[in-house]
Amino acid sequence: MTIDDSFAFSCNLCGNCCRWDAGGGVSDNLLSGADIIKMAAHLGMTPGAFAGRYGCAVYDPALKLRVIKLKKNPDGSCILLREGRCIAYPARPRTCALFPLVRGYSFALDDGGLASIAEEYFSLSSPAPAHECGCDKLLRVREWLEQNGAPISDEADRRWYTKLWRHYTQAIDIPLSDELLNLAFNDLYKFIY
Ligand code: SF4
Hints:
Blueprint: E1 6-8, E2 25-30, H1 33-42, H2 47-54, E3 55-60, E4 65-72, E5 81-82, E6 85-86, H3 94-98, E7 101-110, E8 113-123, H4 130-133, E9 138-140, H5 141-147, H6 155-173, H7 178-189
Antiparallel strand pairs: 1-9, 2-4, 3-4, 5-6, 7-8
Helix pairs in contact: 1-2
Bound molecules: iron/sulfur cluster.
Iron/sulfur cluster (SF4) is lined by residues 18, 29, 78, 80-81, 86, 88, 92-93, 96.
């Protein structure tokens, strides 16, 4: 979807978007450097302390990188969910602010390398369009972003995912040693420590 497309969604405040499979451990909520800095400031912590307490560095086989994800409680809920509320809501990660939308980036190449980056959106609410699922709320992507304080063009996000993409494309050709993984990890997160 583009910024001007519509999707169907009705929030009934169930909070299930903050709960995942039970079992404890680590969620799939990947944090960018900007997410960590913002949430840490909101909670009055240093980024390093925030990442150490609420985050967990895991190897993501899809990205071929070690990334920081939010931890989850044994009941499957997000570590930041307390009595049904997010303790970092005003500074929640971009993934949460966009839900049920997912923002991805497509990268166009030319002979000189990376030529352009474009945002694209996917909806996790299904089925769409609205009239097929009986949901009467049809929302435009642009309005949803504005309502949830998510910038339409997010420079920090673009830089972050461009860096991830560069590491990822390099990783396809280069055998990934522990040393290379550590370098990639440090490069991505070094500015938060
Ligand atoms: S960070 Fe907040 S909004 Fe996001 S899943 Fe955790 S509790 Fe929910």
